[in-house]
Amino acid sequence: MKKVMALLLVSTALIFTACDDDDGNLPTTGELTLNITGLADLGSDYAYEGWLIVDGSPVSAGIFNVDADGKLSQSSFEVDTDDLSNASAYVLTIEPSPDNDPAPSDVHILAGDFSGDNANITVDHSAAIGTDFTSANGRYILATPTDGGADTDELSGVWWLDPAAGPGATLELPTLPSGWEYEGWAVIDGTPVSTGRFTSASGADDDDSFSSTVAPGPPYPGEDFLMNAPAGLTFPTDLSGRVVVVSVEPKPDNSPAPFLLKPLLGQVPMTAAGHTLYDMDNNAIATNPSGMVTR
Asked: What are the boundaries of each domain within the chain?
């Protein structure tokens, strides 16, 4: 009888010990799932990184890349259970790759607040860019003011200004947060050529690589395509029938092509005339990324 009781006690102890071990091995991570469309391939120098905002502080929630088709390299991440349940928001940033800084960069592209287990993430959230660009509008002219008023090749330059206003600015664009800049483009024979970067519609952009040196350009975004043509192109050119674009670019940026955010697009008429104002179309909805984050 004593031997039977002893065996029962040992068996009971083993059962409780096993239960204690099981409790100690309870999972401490949960799954965070991303369903995002509209993101672009950042190349090998940069990557996307998600952040949970927990008690006002960012906690990394996974790094991923996107291929040329917009497919995420990873869409499910294991995250600390407490951070996951206590997170108030999700923010997506663009980071250098590799990245030695444990803090988020200034380049916030998407964000959203959690409502229950889901967060709709958009560019216009205050923790992202803060606007969806649907209010942006602009007009442009074709002209080549840097040739000193020679009045030749006037269809070989694009400027976002109104010559009848003194001149005056023609772009109405939201103010961008740190980490972002606007950039003008002309797409010539399928090649996007930058007119320069800027943050204000009432100031010169940062580039005049293709303009003439005979006269300074006006203090507005724009470019004359008169010299130093990129390989495969010939300047002067004729922008009739081409496309001009105003994009939103991350800063810094490793790509010679426009970023995915292209809020304004203008189809230059085939019968375009110099020094004539043409409207741009708002293209924001078509190019804004968005998504859902689920915990």
From this structure: 29-131+290-294, 139-279
